[in-house]
Amino acid sequence: MSDTKVAIKDLYKIFGSNPSSMIDKVKDGISKSDLLEKYGHVLGLDNVNIEVKKSQLQVIMGLSGSGKSTLIRHINRL
């Protein structure tokens, strides 16, 4: 039996007027700056994969604007 308590696979978050139309461009490797300049969308999370097992402590840290809060909102389903 798996002791995995939280599993996230291939998570993307794109902000903009039509984010679903941008996912293929992101998966094909468009840069964040090109995504913003050419299409007016912002990449919040790019292919996030996390597995947290029972009794495991996981730390999420990074620079301001790196997507920490966006990731936590996905985990909390906010």
SSE order and pairing:
Layout: E1 4-15, H1 23-27, H2 32-39, E2 42-53, H3 68-76
Antiparallel strand pairs: 1-2
The neighbouring-strand order within the major sheet is: 1-2
Order of helices and strands: EHHEH
Please state the overall shape, judged from the principal axes of the Cα atoms: elongated
Q: List low-pLDDT spans.
A: none
Into which percentage range does the β-strand content fall? 25-35%
Mean pLDDT: 93
Global Rg: 14 Å
Number of strands: 2
Please report the distance between the alpha carbons of the first and last residues: 29 Å
User: What is the number of domains?
Assistant: 1
Q: What is the number of helices?
A: 3
Largest sheet: 2 strands, antiparallel
How much helical structure, as a percent, in the residues? 25-40%
Structural class: alpha+beta
